[in-house]
Batch of 2 targets.
Target 1
Amino acid sequence: MKRIVLLFSIAIIIDSCSSGKAALKKGDYYDAVLESVHRLRSSPDNKKAKAVLTQGYPLAIEYIDENIQNGISADDPMKWRNAVKGYEQINFINGQIKTSLGAMKIISKPATRFKELAEAKVKAAEESYQAGITLMMKNTRDDAKQAYFNFKEANTYEPGYRESIEMMTQAEFNATLRVAYEEINASRINYGSLQPVLNSLQRQFLSFKPIDQKDTVPPQQYLRIVFNGYREDVRANISTRTEDVKRDIKTGEKKGADGKTQDVMETVAAKITYYHKAKGAVSNSIITITDAGTNAILQNQNIDGNAFWQQDWATYSGDKRALNTTQINLTNTKEAYPNDQYLFNQSINNLQTNLTSQLRSFYSRY
């Protein structure tokens, strides 16, 4: 067992070293450095990891610094956010090396960019903030949604930066689709409520409120769910079919003319009758989604919730030995009777599931 564990550990080390060298060859200097540092943490004298770190570390720092400066020189709209990411990578490498004794022997004074990072964060906050303002001026839901994340990003770089928190709130408000809904029972069935369906749809940028709930902001859509009713089969339907079965079975042994033992076989037969009993039920609703501004119908669809109960059993006449295991099990099963409450509950649950699926599909575009 110890040998297996040792071989497994060696395999991991070889694989890690190989992946570090592969990353280095592809120019993924950052990943190559982290892989080698990780390997040296558990295997301080690993020659391949030492070689990868020695070669890859200066290349990684140079590559990250160059990318940052190139972005700034080219006036990339993401230049300061990319600079933050780059400086954080350099600082992360520093932290990783300092927690690896083997790596520290190779890179005794890893580079840091703490001062540069602090300065870049201030500029990145302004960059994100201004990007959010530009998006807000486009005055669309999708742009307001993107603006929200820009203001959130600005606040992450510099907590409380300018009016980033207030602008986040405004952007979220502008990006939120407000839906006023009503649930109508057009039947005599007390089915409970479809409220769980509506609760499951609530998420950021999407708000559902009852149509009779007072709101200072008018809705952009109306959602109506009409429960039309529930019906089930008057009685269970039973179908039957009959099958004749035969089987050759061993009943004993005898010696043949040649003195060898032979099986004594007998053909046994039976008649088996299969019974299949089933009862179905269905609940139905209609969802209608209307644009509040134009009264245009955006969706109008019937949604069903189906339920089904069934049972199989069998009887036989003749020799039981002719039956196989499945047939015997069926003959040991007694006729059962459907539970109407089970059918009702299953139907309503399936209706809720189908409504949820349909509405999530529709509102996924928002």
Note: The longest strand covers residues 261-291.
Target 2
Amino acid sequence: MNIQTIVKLSNKYGSDPELVLAGGGNTSIKDEETLFVKASGTELSDITGKGFVGMSRKGIEEIFHKKYPEDDKAREAAVLADLMAARLDPDGESRPSVETLLHGLFVHTLVLHLHPALINGLTCGSDGERAARRLFGDKALWIPACRPGYSLAMLCRNSMESYKKETGRDAQIMFLQNHGVFFAADTEKEIDSLLSYVLDTLKNAAVREPDLSQGIVDTEALRLSERIRGLAPGIKHVIYDGSIEAKRFSESREKALPLLAPLTPDHIVYCRAYPLFVGSEAELEDGFKRYLEKYGVLPRIIILRGTGFFAAGETGREADLARLLFLDAIKTAVYAESFGGVLHMSEKLTDFIVNWEAESYRQKKSI
């Protein structure tokens, strides 16, 4: 097993902003005994061999056969402890990706997990499952929305076993509702082919492409950015986006509905679960107050009717990542129009992600 194979593949895909943003996505390579998976919070674009965590495949497999607590927090903590113990260097500082168990399920040497907007237009579409069946037949496996971590891994394990019984093949393309896609193959060329097949198929099925072209940032937008920056001590950086699609979605609360609840875990991690929508500048201060009272945190995304949106954060990177990921949510919502319209994450699943220690850890490592 050559670790540079997965480094090369990771850098290639991680450097394409149409496929990967911030610390999103993960990759792995394996042989019969060992699996090397991306460390949590590491970025694929510049990852090196040191950015992968070596794991015992036997140790990973044992997790699937253990009995864990029913309580979410207790269960995930116990699974994490077993994952950390399954590292080749159990005393090391690096923490394996939250999707390590899923990587271990695939029999193939290379695994690539992505959540680009074009693909998530399908996975976040109300008609996504039926569309996937129509477009890909039995070449792809569909996994319904599920709590990430151990619960998702067990669901995928059972679904992959059923898929093999039905088709006689091991799964190589696996769509996860409101999450993304996994590709698995034995060579980089095969991974390239699978990815191109899915992207080309979805491009042909898309009714329209999102228009993120920017207009001129006028003095009014700059003034509003300063106004928002002064609303709370925790907001020190504000970035305005007045792209064509951002303004279209901001025309009214009704138009903004596809964006007012989360589509994927990444949008929660970087943008917070819910944006703040305000009808006018006069509502900003009261809107911030109500948001803080309801959620206990400040909003990262502020949609101002007829204007576009503002991404806010304590640091410039925090604000910029919120802007990038909210634009990704906008693109996803546009592509979802081709697959029955937007299907949001459930409140129950959203609450799980918001309170999941693994995603909090990833956020701290990425920002």
Note: The chain has 16 helices and eleven strands.
